[in-house]
Write a structure and sequence with these properties.
Blueprint: H1 3-24, E1 36-42, E2 48-55, E3 58-59, H2 61-70, H3 84-97, E4 103-107, H4 112-121, E5 136-141, H5 146-156, E6 160-164, E7 169-173, E8 178-179
Parallel strand pairs: 1-4, 6-8
Antiparallel strand pairs: 1-2, 2-3, 4-5, 5-7, 6-7
Helix pairs in contact: 3-5
Length: 180
């Protein structure tokens, strides 16, 4: 067999292998450096914050501090840093709802003592709630129905979503994906 024919076959097989291999490569998701913002109104304290909390590839310390303050345990006054994941869930939820109105916050961070007190009053409060870890928030949105908020949150597949129509809020968290 002439060497030029063998070289052409090797070249063709090499090219075919390279093309096939490209199909197995999963592209890495693009990291967006677009600013992320959130608008929150605490229904218990009357305090609100509207801020860009992430820009140029990092969280903005002062904005996150202001968010943590508005999301503090309104029973005890305790402030805990909220998990960055829940901020991103809120940001994505705001985009999905196509709504710039503030989320009306029913509950953000909860101290262990507050969680126990609420659990004694209601069977719908988990003993190890993600609120205690700063990973959950209970919200509603003025210009969207509660079912629209729930459907948008479920469509994100970013964590837990609980639907509480009688209490007028949707629970969202950045824990495992689950629905109730």
């Amino acid at each position: 067999m002439p060497s030029s024919s063998l070289f052409s076959r090797r070249r063709l097989l090499g090219a075919a292998t390279a093309v096939a291999a490209v199909g197995f490569v999963t592209p890495a998701p693009a990291v967006s450096f677009a600013p992320r913002s959130v608008s929150l109104y605490n229904t218990h304290t009357g305090e609100w914050v509207r801020t860009v909390y992430w820009a140029d590839g990092h969280y903005i310390r002062e904005a996150v501090r202001d968010i943590n303050w508005v999301l503090r345990d309104h029973h005890s006054g305790d402030v805990r840093p909220m998990n960055a994941g829940i901020l991103d869930v809120l940001g994505m939820l705001r985009t999905r709802l196509e709504c710039n109105d503030p989320f009306l916050v029913v509950s953000g961070y909860r101290s262990q003592a507050t969680n126990q007190m609420l659990r004694a009053r209601s069977d719908g409060v988990a003993s190890n709630s993600l609120h205690i870890q700063g990973m959950a928030i209970d919200v509603r949105c003025e210009r969207r129905t509660l079912s629209q908020v729930r459907e948008a949150a479920v469509s994100l597949r970013c964590g837990g979503v609980g639907y509480y129509p009688y209490s007028d809020f949707v629970h969202v968290d950045c824990g495992p994906v689950r629905y109730w």
